[in-house]
Amino acid sequence: MNLVNPIKKNQKIKIIPDNIEEFSMGIIIFACKDYFVAEVKNSSLIMIDSEPEILISAEDYMIMFASKVNKIDNNKVFFAVPPKFTIVQKREYPRIKTKIPVFIKETVNSKEIEAETINIGGGGMQFVSSVKYNLNCILNARFSLPNKKEINTLFEILRADCEQLNEKILLSGKFQTISNFDKIAIVQFCFKRQLECIARQPRCTTNG
Questions:
Q1: CB 13 within 8 A of CB 28
Q2: Which of 123, 109, 128 is nearest to 178 (CA)?
């Protein structure tokens, strides 16, 4: 979905380099038709001529776009206004279908087991498990995104369904404790996967 230029002075932004090992926070101090300037923390993470992805949070959705870095002056970064902007969430954290190994265990006296995700988003996930857990059970969960970013979180089970074909358990829930950086990494992964799905339509669909 293309939007009218949403870039405005005093907006807070998140700037995500390609490797997303770290991200920078900033605030827009000047904006015009062709470029905007942001005061950025950790501006050393950003390189001239790179095109980091930028997130702007709106009231009920998030806008994401890639923007070329034209100039860096200490903590002031000059970005080109991109030709288009994309809404990456219309509700809090939409999920995408993907299969990722996830290692889970109860927080006390439990052996870690391997499961596999069905879908994932910034707020939670659904996965297939060989072990059934009680509702509202809190699990330690760890998994790695395809970009090798490892996520460690506490996960609360909100729903459990039996899968009739192979007697597996479908467990759905939310992340109880997750760092803001890890959440951003998941949101960025979902955004990129959504774009891949759109490019391959109608063979690929997203969930949420």
A1: yes
A2: 123
Q: How far apart are CA 172 and CA 191, in angstroms?
A: 21
Topology of domain 96-200 in CATH is: Thrombin, subunit H (2.40.10)
Cis before residue 202, ω within 30 degrees of 0? yes
Of the candidates 191, 164, 170, the one whose C-alpha atom is nearest the C-alpha of residue 116 is 170
pLDDT 10s per residue in the chain (208 long)?
Answer: 445 678 888 888 878 766 555 667 899 999 999 999 999 987 887 889 998 888 887 666 778 888 999 999 999 999 999 988 877 654 556 788 899 999 999 988 778 999 999 999 888 999 999 888 889 999 999 999 876 678 999 999 999 887 655 678 899 999 998 887 788 788 878 877 776 666 565 544 444 4
Domain boundaries, the chain: 12-89, 96-200
Long-range contacts of 8-16 (CB under 8 A, 24+ apart): 11/56, 12/56, 12/57, 13/38, 13/54, 13/55, 13/56, 14/54, 14/55, 14/184, 15/40, 15/45, 15/46, 15/52, 15/53, 15/54, 15/77, 16/52, 16/53, 16/54, 16/55, 16/184, 16/188
What's the DSSP call for residue 48? T
